[in-house]
TrEMBL record:
GO MF annotations in UniProt: phosphatidylinositol N-acetylglucosaminyltransferase activity
Protein name: phosphatidylinositol N-acetylglucosaminyltransferase
Pfam families for the chain: Glycos_transf_1, PIGA
Transmembrane domains' residue ranges: none
């Protein structure tokens, strides 16, 4: 498993790699994780169940993505591939420099490579154009590609121009043993709406800043609790100050992953205002904790939860926002919240948890990923015998 994004950094990619690796270890596979150093965490470390992690001394360029050099990482990656007798290189995330370089070097060494895409990208802006060119180069001889949603698959196929037959859809999952509802459902006075995530533009914080005053104006018994930190925190503080909502909007700041569940069980509704999402694990964690989910209908959001657990807000045209970066309508989000408020009296958090537990498990993700790897390995064996 290769990616720039891994523990102690927190996020969806990091969680995916860790839980998938743990399940593959239990299935009898040998798994190693390769990432760059995080502070003094450098060298070889061992995590739960003996998961071996290589933290390489590679400098970070931007937002935990390592400096692209192509050949500087070759000696380290080659040494790891040979020492650990690697047969398949599995890279994660388009934006991970280390992932792209590891796939490139693995293919030149005759190894098979799998790539998992976790994000959506556009086609017209300069960053997306450059990223799409890079991913076309990386995936030109890839063995197989995994996407976390059908929307993500369509986006990846269009960006990389690879045959759809080489792409499988395997969704993310959630550890329902960690995200459980509270034994006592919080009283509906006040009604608490939880927002939890990075406070950045992509997460729709500008949209949230328009929604909060309108909802507080319509409903006197609604309170917002916002977990997370980022450059857009200042905007939320300005909104709270402008509309005198100090007792209605609580900014709790950055949270450790183990503290997320404690925040979620204090609320009744989880609000996601993202402008782009390939899957969105946060709404899955919230639903597992028993919250009713309100979300913008962007990317692969509509594929994640059943209708009885969520209400999605369409864009201004009344249609789902399927483009990689959309601008949902604040009024539609407010209407979705109004619908959720009406659903709360009959919402059963424990039933919601059981439904999520039935639908999602990391073991199932691991088994489906194992099927992909067996297919790739059989192709490798057939090629060797044929040659």
């Amino acid at each position: 498993m290769v990616s720039d994004f891994f523990y102690p950094n927190m996020g969806g990619v990091e969680s995916h790699i860790f839980h998938l690796s743990q399940c593959l270890l239990k299935l009898g596979h040998k798994v190693c994780v390769v990432t760059h150093a995080y502070g003094d965490r450098c060298g070889v470390r061992y995590l739960s169940n003996g998961l071996k992690v290589y933290y390489l001394p590679i400098p970070v360029l931007y937002q935990q993505a390592s400096l692209p050099t192509i050949f500087t990482s070759l000696p380290l990656l080659r040494y790891i591939f040979i020492r650990e007798k690697i047969t398949i290189v599995h890279g994660h995330s388009t934006c991970s420099t280390l992932c792209n370089e590891a796939i490139f070097h693995g293919l030149t060494m005759g190894l098979k490579a799998i790539f998992t895409d976790h994000s959506l990208f556009g086609f017209a802006d300069v960053p997306s154009i450059l990223t799409n060119k890079m991913i076309r180069f990386t995936l030109c001889d890839i063995s197989h590609v995994v996407c976390v949603s059908h929307t993500c698959k369509e986006n990846t196929v269009l960006r990389s121009v690879i045959p759809p037959q080489l792409v499988s859809v395997i969704p993310n999952s959630v550890d329902c043993n960690l995200f459980t509802p509270s034994e006592v459902w919080p009283k509906l006075d006040p009604i608490v709406i939880i927002i939890c995530g990075r406070l950045v533009y992509r997460k729709g914080i500008d949209l949230l800043a328009q929604v909060i005053p309108e909802v507080c104006k319509q409903h006197a018994k609604v309170k917002f609790v916002i977990g997370g930190d980022g450059p857009k925190r200042t905007l939320l503080e300005e909104v709270r100050e402008k509309y005198q909502l100090h007792d209605r909007v609580d900014l709790v700041g950055a949270l450790n992953h183990e503290d997320v569940r404690n925040l979620l069980i204090k609320g009744h509704i989880f609000l996601n205002t993202s402008l782009t999402e390939a899957f969105c694990m946060s709404i899955l964690e919230a639903a597992s904790c028993g919250l009713f989910v309100v979300s913008t209908d962007v990317g692969g959001i509509s594929e994640v939860l059943p209708e009885e657990l969520t209400k999605t807000a369409k864009d201004g045209t009344g249609m789902p926002s399927s483009t990689p970066l959309s601008s949902p309508d604040p009024a539609a989000v407010s209407e979705a919240i109004n619908f959720a408020l009406q659903q709360l009296p009959k919402h059963n958090p424990h039933a919601a948890h059981e439904l999520i537990k039935k639908c999602y498990s990391w073991k199932n993700v691991a088994l489906r990923t194992e099927h992909v790897r067996v297919h790739v390995s059989s192709v490798l064996q057939f090629t060797i015998l044929h040659d």
